């Protein structure tokens, strides 16, 4: 057996002798969404046997949440497979027959508009009148022409002028407004309608980007997000089926549900957590799941490692169990990182990673499903879009809390009715979505009904028989829907967020000086910086890895970005241990 005594070349050995003795690295994956499941499955398929997935909620899937009501499945979270050519989500769904019942209305080749493609979009004003079809088409052509210009700043390296404030919303609003005002063929009344339509389109754009306002999305970085070619698809049986297919390759004991994590203690110098950083739990103040983690009656801080073993990472759970590991793959949302990074990692995160977390954006996009006994819309209508005529000159997409409903951009009609019944799907985002989440179902249903009556001009529209809605912003395990490149951020911040810890030798200097470079409020005074004591030798590589949609530079905000990011982090470890095992004992 190889000696575990310190040796002169220990500083050159990236892996501890304890790991060599154990033979199998222990990997803990935090989160059982698409990224976490993809990472765990990839590791298991490559022969890793000591893998644990910790999921805070009581179900797998993360931001995939399919709800079955009657004969239909409604998506509170991920809805579309975006693109088909080379999309791993598409290929998984197609190979398993999940798209066999997808209708033409649930398959779109062009740029999708949130949900429905069947029929004609009905643009209605708050005065109860429908905007003529030719006006809508003219405006849509103009808007799409300007939208295409927003892609060119990144793709062609065009400079961003000061007037745009590097904002997609500011640039788009001003460009479209100027062209509308300069059009010699439109009447003043038509111009006013088109000017009011700008705000409605930007609300849709805000929902699609999951920002509070598209004004907050970076113009210079906007074109880096990459669309996979091919049609977009809806899975009639529910997006959750993709999650279940991923989980089929993972033994049930690997995934622990209802297991929120309190803190990740990385760069550990000894077999036990250092000092007072992990506070002992009193008797009876936790719900300890013995499972594979220890025997009944065992202290929650015992049973996971031997006294002589050294572990570079210790995961502290909310139930007071601590789990030692060689590597931890963190898949929590950017919203959770923004809220908890100061307490979630010990020692503190490096300055550049903290800065990336601050610069990148994540917002809330919520859905409101309303089911009616009978449709009050025509068979050709695929959506009801709300245009407020008094917003023709507005330069903001922010409303006071009592007017939160003004952020609802419209309602899509779910097709086919034979599957879904007579259901409308409304969309709202940003701070106004958070206000909506605080309201009860009755209040939201009442307000939505009043809006539908006002915009259609039909005072006889009944209340919906049922309402179903999401609440991603207030959910403590997500704190938002998905990420975007905020003004001031770029794809480089996505790369920094994804970089494993500890950093390589070339980046240690920047890390070690982080307290001098960053405002003091970003760090807890009780949080020590990463130790760089040369007497300890080389730090264990890739102790903490990061995945999730927000860590994919080209495919952030998507399910395929999440899945690919999980596979990416698993591949780092697979390659790392392939090299080690090839060296032999």
Q: What labels describe this entry?
A:
585 residues, alpha/beta, 6-stranded mixed sheet, 32% helix, 16% strand, disordered N terminus
Q: How would you explain this protein's 3D organization?
A:
The protein has 585 residues and is of the alpha/beta class. The chain is 32% helix and 16% strand. The protein contains 17 helices and 22 strands. It has helices spanning 17-22, 34-45, 88-95, 133-150, 152-155, 168-182, 188-209, 240-247, 334-344, 351-359, 417-420, 430-438, 441-456, 491-498, 505-512, 514-517, 559-583, and strands at 26-30, 50-54, 66-69, 72-75, 80-81, 107-108, 120-125, 232-234, 255-256, 261-265, 313-317, 322-325, 327-330, 345-346, 361-363, 365-372, 381-387, 410-413, 422-429, 466-469, 482-484, 544-546. Strands 7-17-18-19-16-20 form a six-stranded mixed beta sheet, with helices on both faces. Strands 9-2-1-13-22 form a five-stranded parallel beta sheet, with helices on one face. α2 (34-45) packs parallel to α17. Residues 504-518 have a biased composition (Polar residues). It comes from Microtus ochrogaster. InterPro entries: Amino_oxidase, FAD/NAD-bd_sf, Flavin_monoamine_oxidase. This is Spermine oxidase isoform X1. Keywords: FAD, Flavoprotein.
């Amino acid at each position: 057996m190889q000696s575990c005594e310190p040796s002169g070349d220990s500083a050159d050995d990236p892996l501890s002798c304890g790991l060599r003795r154990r033979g199998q690295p222990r990997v803990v994956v935090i989160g059982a969404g698409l990224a976490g499941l993809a990472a765990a499955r990839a590791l298991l398929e490559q022969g890793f046997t000591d893998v644990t997935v910790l999921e805070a909620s009581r179900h797998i899937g993360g931001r995939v949440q399919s709800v079955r009501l009657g004969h239909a499945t409604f998506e509170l979270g991920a809805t579309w497979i975006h693109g088909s050519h080379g999309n791993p989500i598409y290929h998984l769904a197609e190979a398993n027959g999940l798209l066999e019942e997808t209708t033409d209305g649930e398959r779109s080749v062009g740029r999708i508009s949130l949900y429905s493609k069947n029929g004609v979009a009905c643009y209605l004003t708050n005065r109860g009148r429908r905007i003529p079809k030719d006006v809508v088409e003219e405006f849509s052509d103009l808007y799409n022409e300007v939208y295409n210009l927003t892609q060119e700043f990144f793709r062609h390296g065009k400079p961003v002028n000061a007037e745009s404030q590097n904002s997609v919303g500011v640039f788009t609003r001003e460009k479209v407004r100027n062209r509308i005002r300069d059009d010699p063929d439109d009447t003043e009344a038509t111009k006013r309608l088109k000017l009011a339509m700008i705000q409605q389109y930007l609300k849709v754009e805000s929902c699609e980007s999951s920002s509070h306002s598209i004004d907050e999305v970076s113009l210079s970085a906007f074109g880096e997000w990459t669309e996979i070619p091919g049609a977009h698809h809806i899975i009639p049986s529910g997006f959750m089926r993709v999650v279940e297919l991923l989980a089929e390759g993972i033994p049930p004991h690997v995934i622990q549900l209802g297991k929120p994590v309190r803190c990740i203690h990385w760069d550990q110098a000894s077999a036990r957590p250092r000092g007072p950083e992990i506070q002992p739990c009193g008797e009876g103040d936790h719900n300890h799941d013995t499972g594979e983690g220890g025997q009944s009656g065992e202290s929650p801080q015992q049973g996971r490692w031997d006294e002589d073993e050294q572990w570079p990472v210790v995961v502290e759970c909310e139930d007071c169990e601590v789990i030692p590991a060689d590597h931890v793959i963190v898949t929590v949302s950017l919203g959770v990182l923004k809220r908890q990074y100061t307490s979630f990692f010990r020692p503190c995160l490096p300055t550049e990673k903290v800065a990336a977390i601050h610069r990148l954006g994540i917002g809330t996009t919520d859905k409101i499903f309303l089911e009616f006994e009978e449709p009050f819309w025509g068979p050709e209508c695929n959506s009801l879009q709300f245009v407020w005529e008094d917003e023709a000159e507005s330069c903001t997409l922010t409303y006071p809390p009592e007017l939160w409903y003004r952020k609802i951009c419209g309602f899509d009609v779910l097709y086919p009715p034979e599957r879904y019944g007579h259901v409308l799907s409304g969309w709202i985002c940003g701070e106004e979505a958070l206000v909506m989440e605080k309201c009860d179902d009755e209040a939201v249903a009442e307000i939505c009904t009043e809006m539908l009556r006002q915009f259609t001009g039909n005072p006889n529209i009944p209340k919906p028989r049922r309402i179903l809605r999401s609440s991603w912003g207030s959910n403590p395990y997500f704190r938002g829907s998905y990420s975007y490149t905020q003004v001031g951020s770029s794809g480089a911040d996505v790369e920094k967020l994804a970089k494993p810890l500890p950093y390589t030798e070339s980046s240690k200097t920047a890390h070690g000086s982080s307290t001098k470079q960053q405002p003091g409020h970003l760090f807890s005074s009780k949080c020590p910086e990463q130790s760089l004591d040369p007497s300890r030798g080389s730090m264990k590589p890739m102790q903490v890895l990061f995945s999730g949609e927000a860590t994919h530079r080209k495919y952030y905000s998507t399910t395929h970005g999440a899945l690919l990011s999980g596979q990416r982090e698993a591949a780092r470890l697979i390659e790392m241990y392939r090299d080690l095992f090839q060296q032999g004992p």
